[in-house]
Amino acid sequence: MGTLLELGNSTLDLLRELVNRPPGESLTVATPALPGAHTSPLDARQGILTARRNLECTLLYAVTQLVMWLSKPEFDAPPVEEDDSQSMEVVQRTDGFKDRRPRHSLSLAERLRRGMTGEMAADLQSLLNKSKPVLAKGDSVLQKTSVDLTSVLSTFLHERIGVPT
């Protein structure tokens, strides 16, 4: 997740630089034509389109990976020995009888998952919030309207793991 967040933030920085340039400004120097080489320079508009696509893909992948990781059932819980009195708890049933059930302790993976949820989700939500105005500015530079993917992903993140938008 950290790598995806870093990639997203780096791409956002690049996109922020590109949307502040004139759309037709050349980003590369035109070189003398080489046999079979592409000779037209890369302009800011093309750079914005490429960086935007990269940022949106990174955001989509990061949100879905975090949600899938957090919703994964716990398969690595340590086995509980039934004859171990330390690992059993007495539970009062509604009919007045008592049951002995194994205690469910959190595995290391579950503790890490819970501890990292808030931090990672907050970082991801922050990246989504920072991306929204830059993507909107990119639309105005490109003179086109596109779907606001950041709102969709923020809503998805909020609904799946309860991150405030």
Short description:
The chain has 165 residues and is mostly helical.
What does this structure look like?
The chain is mainly alpha-helical and 165 residues long. It has one domain. The protein is 57% helix and 6% strand. The protein is built from four helices and two strands. The protein has helices spanning 2-19, 44-71, 108-142, 149-161, and strands at residues 88-92, 98-102. The protein has a two-stranded antiparallel sheet with strand order 1-2. A hairpin with a 5-residue loop joins strand 1 and strand 2 (98-102). Helix 1 (2-19) runs antiparallel to helix 2, helix 1 (2-19) packs parallel to helix 3 (108-142) and helix 2 (44-71) packs antiparallel against helix 3 (108-142). The longest helix is centred in the C-terminal third of the chain and has 35 residues, at 108-142. It starts with a helix and ends with a helix.
| Domain unit count | 1
Structural class: mainly alpha
The best one-word shape is: elongated
User: Oligomer, anyone?
Assistant: single chain
Question: What are the defining features of this structure?
Answer:
single chain, mainly alpha
Helix/strand layout:
Blueprint: H1 2-19, H2 44-71, E1 88-92, E2 98-102, H3 108-142, H4 149-161
Antiparallel strand pairs: 1-2
